[in-house]
From TrEMBL:
The lineage of its organism: Bacteria, Bacillati, Bacillota, Clostridia, Eubacteriales. This is Peptidoglycan-binding protein. The chain crosses the membrane at residues 18-38. It comes from the Bacteria. InterPro entries: LD-transpeptidase, LD_TPept-like_central_sf, LD_TPept_cat_dom, Transpep_catalytic_dom, YoaR-like_PG-bd. Pathway: Cell wall biogenesis; peptidoglycan biosynthesis. Residues 346-465 form the L,D-TPase catalytic domain. It comes from Clostridium fermenticellae. The active site is at 420 (proton donor/acceptor), 441 (nucleophile). GO terms for cellular component: extracellular region. PROSITE patterns: LD_TPASE (PS52029).
């Protein structure tokens, strides 16, 4: 019995060995058969430019890739939802050569076919392609997304003024494309066989440098609000002009460098117009003469004159520092009063028709007397207008073409024209000025010139009229 059992066991083991051997032989035959097959065919999982060429011969793969190239289309998906295409025929797209296929197959060999799909180095090929760069550039240039009529420029956040301060408006992303980035992405897509290129996700669009969440945006808003919080109150006598946020905001811009700047053109135009309402040099005034007549008189250099350039710089500094100040403007020249009669009650009055001079100080007549003004017949008449006394000088010599006249009291008010004593004259007033007048100065008797000199100060208005 025992011998029969052993015989049965040995028989069974023998059969098992036969089965295992048969399986091994079968697998070996399959392996060798597949190895023979893959000697001329690509391994499973082989891709050329993302195209599956598994189990294809070099010739078959080349044919498939050629067909693939001929039908190739690259779809450009744009932000607007529109899609544009670049086809292979438009740019003469083709494979460089088939030699790379043979080199890939040689690297694969034939016996490693089982693990071929796992060997990405020898199962993936990025084959060289060629195309007309000129045609590609032309195609890109003609894309609708690059047409200037369709482009919306990206913009940084903007700032809007309101009665409660500035609010930030969202940035504009726009749809303007960075042409260089687009070109690089298209070339990469062509070389890899990619058929769809999303322009947004591949960063082809230019973006604003700043957003509403940028730290710089917050800084800009704070600066703007600081500026419009300023309040500069100009005083002109009993009148006032207020410069506050309602005006300042119109002078502020955020430039291309995202910096707060003043629009100096608008600011200067506004301030010069405002100042002109209070500047009186050369303007026509109503003047009540000693005889009681009200005359209109213009010209001359007396009056208020604001140093606009310097004051505007001061104004900008006040605004930048967020100041609240009350001040006068910066003057080049002042007058006696900001009222409509800026001459005040201290002045020299010269009636050139009646050849008479009066000098009033603080409303009281100090002196008066007949004078001789410029010679009418020689066109050297004394100009009408309201002037300011420039200075006064004792013992001066007046020089001109063909003369040099020493005087005791010299008080110029209009260039080389002034009031002075004239010892060479024995009489004054009347019609002397018509034919025997001065070179333009006001000739006065000694007593009149002396009294005037002793009581007048530089800057005093001198009113000359006919």
């Amino acid at each position: 019995m025992e011998n029969d059992a052993e015989t049965e066991k040995e028989k069974k083991n023998k059969n098992n060995k036969v089965i295992v051997g048969s399986i091994i032989c079968t697998l070996l035959v399959i392996y060798l058969g597949m190895a023979t097959y893959f000697r001329t065919h690509f391994y499973f999982g082989t891709e050329i430019n993302c195209v599956n060429v598994s189990a294809k011969t070099i010739k078959e793969a080349a044919k498939q890739m050629t067909s693939q190239m001929e039908s190739y289309k690259l779809s450009l998906k744009e932000k607007s939802g529109k899609t544009e295409q670049i086809t292979s025929t438009e740019i003469n797209l083709k494979l460089s050569s088939n030699d790379e296929f043979k080199r890939l197959k040689d690297k694969q060999g034939s016996f490693n076919w089982i693990f071929g799909a796992l060997d990405s180095k020898n199962s993936k090929l990025k084959a060289n392609i060629i195309y007309s760069n000129k045609l590609l550039q032309e195609k890109i240039n003609n894309l609708s997304c690059l047409d200037s009529k369709n482009i919306i420029e990206p913009k940084n956040p903007s700032f809007k003024y309101s009665s409660t301060g500035y609010v930030v408006l969202n940035e504009v992303n726009g749809n303007k494309i960075d042409k260089d980035v687009l070109y690089k992405n298209i070339v990469n897509a062509l070389s890899t066989g990619t058929t769809t290129l999303n322009l947004d996700s591949t960063n082809c669009y230019l973006k604003p440098k700043y957003t509403v969440k940028s730290k710089k945006t917050s800084e800009i808003k704070n600066i703007l609000n600081k500026y419009v919080s300023s309040k500069i109150i100009y005083t002109f006598g009993d009148k006032k002009e207020v410069i506050d946020g309602s005006k300042i905001n119109k002078w502020l811009n955020v430039d291309d460098n995202y910096e707060v700047v003043f629009d100096n053109s608008i600011l200067t135009k506004y301030m010069r117009k405002l100042f002109s309402n209070y500047e009186t040099i050369g303007k026509t005034r109503n003047f009540v003469t000693t005889s009681g007549n009200t005359i209109s008189i213009g010209g001359g250099d007396y009056g208020w004159d604001i140093n606009s350039s310097e004051d505007i710089q001061k104004l900008i500094d006040d605004i930048k520092n967020g100041r609240t100040v009350t001040r006068e403007p910066i003057y080049l020249q002042t007058a006696a009063s900001h009222s409509s009669d800026d001459i005040g009650n201290t002045y020299v009055e010269i009636d050139m028709v009646n050849q008479h001079l009066w000098f009033y100080k603080k409303g009281s007549l100090v002196t008066q007397g007949d004078v001789v003004t410029g010679n009418m017949s020689l066109n050297t008449s004394t100009p009408a207008g309201v002037y300011r006394l420039k200075y006064k000088e004792r013992n001066a010599t007046l020089k001109g073409e063909g003369y040099a006249s020493p005087v005791n009291f010299w008080m110029p008010f209009n260039g080389g024209i002034g009031i002075h004593d004239a010892s060479w004259r024995s009489s004054f007033g009347g019609n002397i000025y018509l034919t025997s007048g001065s070179h333009g100065c006001v000739n006065a008797p000694y007593y009149l010139a002396q009294t005037l000199y002793n009581n007048i100060d530089a800057g005093t208005p001198v009113v000359c009229y006919y």
